[in-house]
Each structure stands twice: as C-alpha cells, then as structure tokens.
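We emphasize that the prediction below concerns an isolated chain of 329 residues; any contacts that depend on oligomerization or on bound cofactors are therefore not represented. The input was used exactly as deposited, without trimming of termini.
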Amino acid sequence: MKRPTLEAVAARAGVSRATVSRVVNGSDTVNPDIRTAVLRAVKELGYVPNPAARSLVTQRTGSIGLVVSEPPARVFSDDPFFSQVIRTVCLELETADRQAVLMMPSSPDGQARVERYVAGGHVDGVILLSLHGADPLPAALLRTGVPVVSHGRPVSTARPPYCDADNVGGARAAVQHLLDRGRRRIATISGPPDMSAGLDRLAGYREILSGTGRRSLAAIGDFTRESGAAAMAQLLEDDPGLDAVFAASDLMATGALYALRRAGRRVPDDVAVVGFDDIDAARFTDPPLTTVRQPIAEVARTIVRMVLDGADDTTPVIFPVELIVRDST
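Result of the prediction step, given as a token string:
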C-alpha cells in the first residue's frame, strides 16, 4: 500500500493541503471544527507526517543530544549514577514529546563527529554529562548556536548553563559529622581532579579541616569501587592511625569498606566511613553507609527543562544535599 499523502488527507477532509500542514505541525491558527475534520481524516487514512518535511516547517528535529564524555564500558558499568541520569532524561524528554540521542565520544575523532552532528542541525539542544578538564566540546557546541546545558559545573573555561548538587556543602557536612563523632584523623578519597565533583568535594573536606588546624590526608580515586579500595589501602599505609575517611562517592566508599575489612579494621569502631550520592546499595553495605544524598533525578529533570527552554538563563541551578546517617559512623 502506498503511504497516505497530505493531498489525500486534504481531499478526505475537504480542505487545502496548506491547512492540513498547519494542523499536523501544531499551528493554533486553524478553526477548531476544521482541525477536528483534519485529525479525523489523518486517523482514517493512517497518515504519518514525514519527519524531514515536518522539521523543515517547524525548524525542530524533536531530538535532544545527550553527550556523555565517558567510554561505553564505564557508562554501562555497575555505577547507578549514569543509569539514573540517562533514564530520567529519557523519561522527561518523552513527556515533552522529544527523544534523546545518546552520544559517547571517547576520543578527539568522536568529539569531532559529535560537533559535526550537532552543527548539522540534527538535534534541538544538547545535554553534556560527565565533563572532564579542558574538554573542547562545550566551546565547540556553544559556537553552533544550539542550546547547551551541562550536568554539573564545567571545569573548562567555556561555561554553558549548568545544574548541579551542592558538592562543597555536602563534603563540609560529611566531615563536620565525623568531627562531631569525635574523629580526629580524617582522610578523604577524592574524585578525579579534572572533574568539578572531585574538585568541589575535596575543597569542602579541606575547608572544614583547615578551620580546625588538622592535617588533611587525601588519596585520589575515579569514583569506582576498585579505586576506592586501592585508595583506602594507600591511606592506611600513609597513616595507620587514621580513624575516619570521607569518600567522594558511595562506590568508592564501598571499596573502602572492603579494604578496611581486609586490613582487619572495624567499621565504625576503628574507622568511620562516609560516602556521597546515597545510591540504593548504600543501605545494604556492611555496615549500612552514612552518606550525602544528592538529588540525582531532580538535577536531571531540571537540566531537561533548561535545554527545552533554550538555555537562556546562564545562572547556575544548585540543589541542596542532605546528610544521611547510618551505622558506618
């Protein structure tokens, strides 16, 4: 069977082709009775608008690019952060009658392909996730004129509008909690130094300790469980007498719990542990993990609204966080 055309719908509804075009493209200038007749003809004939032709009329593709600057193996690992953000973004876009186009550039060639794709008019906006260091992509995408919003504060000098959680404040609350529990030799497992979440959570840790005159002790991780275990082992070697650790992610905190068990340290009797994120697994570690809850879904929903609104407001949106106290402290 041949695909029904605009002309066929117009003939069935008894109106012009231009009127049908306005109705199917969402124009509000058509008489309600005529609109009803056109929509009835569309349903009876099974007419489906041509996406390419429709985008020429509306100047919109109906798609939003979700650019994740991580290798696919990391995005689809056991880190629940990525799955929750991607799921929330897709659901929010579906509610707005949009779809997500997932892109994961992990090389300069991949970044160039993303830039060409966006500059070619294939998406109506871009959401950037998990930016690292002096990533050239934000500046390149901003030059295309397409609305661009970042999930998290960009570290690069190119600063698209962004939404984030209060990483500095959350780290402060975590370390202050450990001090209030009587802990005196508090170490940290920080995130990557080329990511704002890593930098800001380390800054919050150092701010609280500097106010007490205590020495800071840090080991660097990459937000994975394995890096948390390795960093914890290094911290115990550097300072066997430490009595608390603030890990900048829950996955690194679970790695720290594993390393502490292997070293024969009791949690929280010998070493108290605090994480950051409040992933579902934090309630089921042994012991259950004290952590800083960040509103991952709320941040993701806000970013979608920002990009759909055209990213006109450059004022950052920062969500508060909450300390969740469990048995690990």
